[in-house]
Amino acid sequence: MPDPTRVLLVGTGRMGQSHLQSLKNQSDLAEVIAAVDPSEAARHTIRDDFGVERSYDNLEEALEKEEATAAIISVPNFLHAEYALACMEKGLHILIEKPMALNIGDVDRMVQTADSKGLLLMSGQSLRFVPSMRYVKQLLHEGTVGRIRHVTHRRLGAGRGGDFNSWFSRQDRSGGILPGIGSHSLDVLLWWLAERATSVYAVVHNIDPHPDIDIEDEVSLVATMESGAILNAALSFHHKAGTEWIVMGEEGVIHLHGMGEKLTVNGEERPIPEETPLPGESEIHREFLTAIREGRPLAQAAGSEIRHTMALIFAAMESGREGKAVVVP
Predict the structure, then answer these.
(1) Residue 163: pLDDT above 70?
(2) CA atoms within 13 A on the CB side of 136
(3) Would the N or C end of the chain have less CB density within 10 A of its end CB?
(4) Does residue 254 sit within a domain?
(5) What is the pLDDT of residues 291-309, one digit of tens each?
C-alpha cells in the first residue's frame, strides 16, 4: 500500500482543527507532518490535542525544513493567495479554504500556477459533499424537473462569525459576506445548474456600521445564466430567517429546507440518501488525497472550476458598488 500523503497544515485555528479532526480517521491517506501558525498557544493545542509535534510560526521556515507533498491552508482570507502560491512554488498540492482569494487576479494566478506545475488546487467547497446537496445534483442531472427556469436561495442568519477584534470584521481582510458564505451558496447553485452566469445585479450593504466592523453583511442578487434561467440569492448576517433552496423547472419544483432538514419534489417529501453516486469521493479530504494518490484530476471543486464561482462573487460585489448590472468574466 502506498505511504500516506505528507501534509503540511497551514493555519491551526478553528478550521485548521476541523481539518485535523477529519483527517484522524484517514491515516491510510494522510499524515500531518507539521503545522504553521503565528500563535504559540494554537501550536500547543494541535500538539496536545492532535499529536502534531512539529510546528512553525512562519510558512517560509516550514517550507524550507519540511518535505511535504500537500498543504491544507486555513488562514485568514486575505492570506489565501499568498500562502497557496508560496506552497505551490515548492511543489505542494493545495486544499485551500474558501474563498480561494479576494480578487479574480489572484484566483487566476493560483489556477495558472497549479496548471503550469502539474499540481492539484482544490477549493474547500464542503457543501458539495453534503448528502442533501449531492442528491439534488443527481435529481437535476436526471432531469427530474426538466429544463430549469428559476432558482431561488436564501441563507439568512444572525451573527457575522467574528467579533470586533476578528480579522473577519474587516472588509479588506475577509471580503465580507459574498466571499464569506456566498462562496458556498453560489457555488452550489452553479454546480447544480451546470452552466455559467453571464451577468449579475446586486444590492450589497453594511446595514449596521461600526467603527471596528466595516464588512458588507447583507446582499440580494439576481444573475442571468447562459440558458436564460434566473438565479436569485439573498444572504444576511443579521436576520435569523433560515436557509432554503428552490429549483423551478418546466416539469416541477425541488424545495430543500436548510442543509437537508426536508426535501420535497413537486410537493411530495422524499428521503435524502446518505450516499449519492457522483464523480469522485463522497468526502472532501478523501477526494483531495485520493486524487493525489491516483495521479488523477479532481472530480469536484478544482480551482479551475471554482474560478467561475469567484468571478460571479466579484462581479456581484462590483455591481453593489456601481449600482448597475455587471458582466461575469
Answers:
(1) no
(2) 33
(3) N
(4) yes
(5) 999 999 999 999 999 999 9
Is residue 210 domain-resident?
yes
Q: Are 148 and 105 within one domain?
A: no
Write down the pLDDT at residue 311. 98
Same domain, 108 and 232: no
CATH number of the structural domain spanning residue 158: 3.30.360.10
Using CA atoms of 315, 319, 322, 325 in order, give the dihedral in degrees to the nearest 10: 110
Q: Sign of the C-alpha dihedral, residues 209, 213, 218, 223?
A: positive
pTM: 0.95
Is 162 part of a structural domain of the chain?
yes
Q: How many residues are given for the chain? A: 329
Does residue 276 lie within any of the structural domains? no
What whole-number distance in Å separates Cα of residue 317 and Cα of residue 59?
Answer: 31
Helices vs. strands in the chain: H and E counts, helices first? 11, 15
Main-chain phi, psi angles of 54, to 5 degrees: -95, 135
pLDDT at 92: 98
Give the position of cell 497549479.
Answer: 114
CATH of the domain at 99: 3.40.50.720
CB-based burial label for 21 (10 Å; 0-12, 13-18, 19+):
exposed
239 and 212 Cβ atoms separated by less than 8 Å: no
Q: What is the pLDDT of residues 215-267, one digit of tens each?
A: 899 999 999 999 999 999 999 998 889 999 999 999 999 999 999 999 999 99
Give Cα 165 to chain centroid, integer Å: 24
230 touches 193 (CB < 8 A) = no
Longest dimension (CA), the chain: 59
d(CA 72, CA 82): 14
Check: CB of residue 158 under 8 Å from CB of residue 238. yes
Residue 77: which domain range? 5-126+281-300
155: left (phi over 0), alpha (psi -120 to 50) or beta: beta
CA distance 70 to 307: 21
Query: What is the pLDDT confidence band of residue 91, given thresholds at 50, 70 and 90?
Result: very high
